[in-house]
Amino acid sequence: MVSEQHIKMWESLDINTELLSKMVSAAVKRHEDVFKTQSNRPSSMDYFDDFWANLQTGRIEELQEVKKAKKPLVGTFCIFVPEESVTALGGACYGLCSGSPASIPEAEKELPRNICPLIKSAHGFKLLKACGYTQSADFIYGETTCEAKKKTWEILSKHHPIHVMQIPQKKDKKSLELWKKEIEEFNEHIEEVSGEELTFNKLKDGIETVNSKRDALKRLDKLRGFYPDIMPISGKDALLAMQISFVDEPKRFTQKLHELCDELEARVEQKVSVFEKDVPRLIILGTPFAAPNWKLHDIVETSGAAIINEESCIGHRYYKDNIDTSSATSKEELVDKMLERYADIDCACFTPNEARIEKIKKMIEERKADGVIYYTLAFCHTYNVESFLVSSALKEAGVPFLAIESDYSPEDAGQIKTRIEAFLESIKNKKVG
Ligand code: BJ8
């Protein structure tokens, strides 16, 4: 699968080829264990399985073509970085490797042990030179959403060019003004490196391309979660598709996801479900699931429940809103609309963040979920602290609630499984009662 040609390409990117070859084999094996063991998968998942197998080869090759055309390659760790502007100028904006435990020991040579695994994993990939996306990126765009990230950028910048966007902590008028300036500066920077003007029409096209991707993800959301008796796709498969949405070419991804949705639509009509009718249907709340962090989904779905949605940035928070371009007549108005959409994302980095709770309640209601699991990556203080407010509100509303804090290591899998099984038992008893 990894050819001589790929090895040569990796060498040109200063990648540790021996290590990445081993990591690719391990990632393919893990994917087989987690995904290929499921029965009755939609055949349109083949595209996403193949994409995963070629994550560090085929897609990296394509990115080199973008680079040859002198378009920017921008790596990110947050959905607040305006991918629309990069797409508008023909560049690629993608999420960086940050979901594997394999790179964490290396990161801990420079970072404290007690910070979030997502940050450590990403930092470790850079130190090990073992991620084609990071090695290809002209620069990384960091942001100031959490303490650990914003201090890590200072260290990561010793190894890779970094720019940092200031994301405010509040959503009042003066904070939004600052945020708007940050988007404008981002756009100017992308213009500078592309040597091309980001015109009204180009920005509008870039926005529409990403809106279309979000529309396809919304379609998947409905098909997997809005039919209480039929779940045509597993939560694991839906998660894999969403994870790929952060690295694939957006137009092709959109088309492939619609093909999957066509198949799911037919399954719904024919009442083909991958789960038994009465399994508990759960929504996961909280921090993002960077690939290949499939631990929670795998445990839940091999314990007799279905995941029908994720209130996460690799999930609902990412695709729930489009940028409305219909009334904009100038570039500035487009930027206002971009800001409007970004500011409607309820990341726990904001204070207060009350709107998040109402949105979660609505998600549960619309999908008739049987319960929620609040998932926090270890040491993510904002999401962890906010779980008290979310759990209080949901318990008051009678929604079964379980909080899980975990990192990427497999060590706590048994303990998590025991807690989830007890949680599912209580949901089943409640249903019977
Ligand atoms: S908009 S959720 S993608 S910041 S890195 S905050 S898990 S301690 S990723 Fe996020 Fe943007 Fe918000 Fe979404 Fe916690 Fe870890 Fe920090 Fe994290």
Run of helices and strands: HHHHEHEHHHEHEHHHHEHEHHHEHEH
Number of domains: 2
CATH architecture of the largest domain: 3-Layer(aba) Sandwich
Please indicate the percent range of residues in DSSP E strands (runs of 2 or more): 5-15%
Enumerate the spans where pLDDT stays under 50 for 5 or more consecutive residues.
Answer: none
Number of helices: 19
Number of β-strand runs: 8
CATH domain topology of the largest domain: Rossmann fold
CATH class of the largest domain: Alpha Beta
Q: Catalogue the ligands.
A: Double cubane cluster
How would you characterize this protein structure?
This protein has 433 residues and is α/β, with parallel strands linked by helices. The chain has two domains: 4-169, Rossmann fold; 205-322 and 347-432, Rossmann fold (3-Layer(aba) Sandwich). 55% of the residues lie in helices and 10% in strands. The chain is built from 19 helices and eight strands. The protein has helices at residues 4-12, 17-36, 45-53, 58-68, 83-88, 104-107, 117-128, 132-136, 147-156, 173-194, 200-225, 235-244, 250-269, 295-301, 316-319, 331-342, 355-367, 381-396, 413-432, and strands spanning 73-76, 92-95, 139-143, 162-165, 281-286, 306-311, 371-377, 401-406. The strands form two sheets. A four-stranded parallel beta sheet has the order 2-1-3-4, with helices on both faces. A four-stranded parallel beta sheet has the order 6-5-7-8, sandwiched between helices. Strand 5, helix 14 (295-301) and strand 6 form a beta-alpha-beta unit. Helix 3 (45-53) packs across helix 12 (235-244). The model has no long low-confidence stretch (mean pLDDT 97). Bound molecules: Double cubane cluster. Double cubane cluster is lined by residues 78-80, 116, 118-119, 145-146, 148-149, 287-288, 313, 345, 347, 349, 377, 380, 382-383. Residues 78-80, 116, 118-119, 145-146, 148-149, 287-288, 313, 345, 347, 349, 377, 380, 382-383 line the site of Double cubane cluster (BJ8).
